[in-house]
Amino acid sequence: MKSLIRACQVLKVFKDQSECLRLTDIVARTGLHKTTALRMLSTLVACELLSRVDETKYKLAIRPLGQHRFRFGYGMQSAEFGFSRAVTDSLRRSAAAADIELLVLDNEDTSRAALRNADTFVRERVDLVIESQTDTRIAEQIFSRFRTAAIPVIALEIPHPQTVFYGANNSQAGLIAGRYLARWAEAHWESRVDELLLLELPKAGHVPNARILGGMLGVLERLVWLSERQVKILRTTGHYENTVALTRAHLRRSRAERILVVAINDPCALGALQAFRDAGREEHCAIVGHNASPEVHAELATKNSRLIGSVGYFPEKYGEGVIPLALDLLGGRPVPPATFVRHEMVTPANLRAFYPAGPQRR
User: Fold this and answer.
1) Strands 285-291 and 259-263
2) Contact present, 346 and 310 (Cβ < 8 Å)
3) How many Å is the Cα radius of gyration of the chain?
4) What is the bridge-based pairing of β-strands 57-60 and 307-312?
5) Which ranges of 280-361 would DSSP assign to H, the alpha helix?
6) Overall pTM > 0.85
7) pLDDT tens for residues 62-79?
């Protein structure tokens, strides 16, 4: 009986499944002798109630004793986007590993669906919401629903009022894109550039569009002679078909033969590329996207494609950061107001380093 009581003592010191504790932490929290605590830990690991982390720490392999199973709501931006699908898969994996129920609803990249889904999360009384929707015009309405219901929120990619942010460092990502484009122009066009085309997303607000500003600044750092009249802006919806149409119309007006393109996301980058191909002018462009999401991997693996790179956000790893952050938030532990993901330029040369199981080159 004593052994059972001591085992329960050890299990109860873990606040949640994300917390990792050393032997010394467990001794301090339980008051058990070090030898006794070590014996209990070995038994609990053998019974698969605890698991080892790096041979020096332990974490729960079951839900904390006395704690109800958390239920999170996740409003995904849109199942249309490969980036959104990759984030969703990552969140599902990490939630399942933490024994959290994840209610996934598709915001369909529309304000109406996002507001409807927010009402559903409130009605379902979820413990926390992970929100990913791009229309800043309804951000306050979304947050007010959750605030009234006392539901904490983590906002992905698009900041919402009084929420915890997780996502891109947009200015940094933009600079990475712009500097890479400029270096490419120096190497392939001897710096002779006729036009810089920026594909922005107005409804997302100024924070995500900072990647467009950063892209422009990154180009101008090196190609300092480019003038304001050579910078063109297209206001997209962030979708492939819309960008194809807008870029086609632009190409009918423009006779520029060396055009650098900074796209707000990968669907826009692919849409612009298709428009150049349709016009028989693919050799006139060099395009960089953002997200390095699954839909661009095949294009990056295509020989001589003028989609020359995409800034990586690594959506397949979002769950590893977001779920522990959510548990800290619910556990009353301090969390930063913003957590930024790492960014790296993903190119045809390094695609396989980041994604070894990627598509074959065409």
Assistant:
1) parallel
2) yes
3) 24
4) unpaired
5) 294-300, 318-330, 351-354
6) no
7) 766 656 789 999 999 999
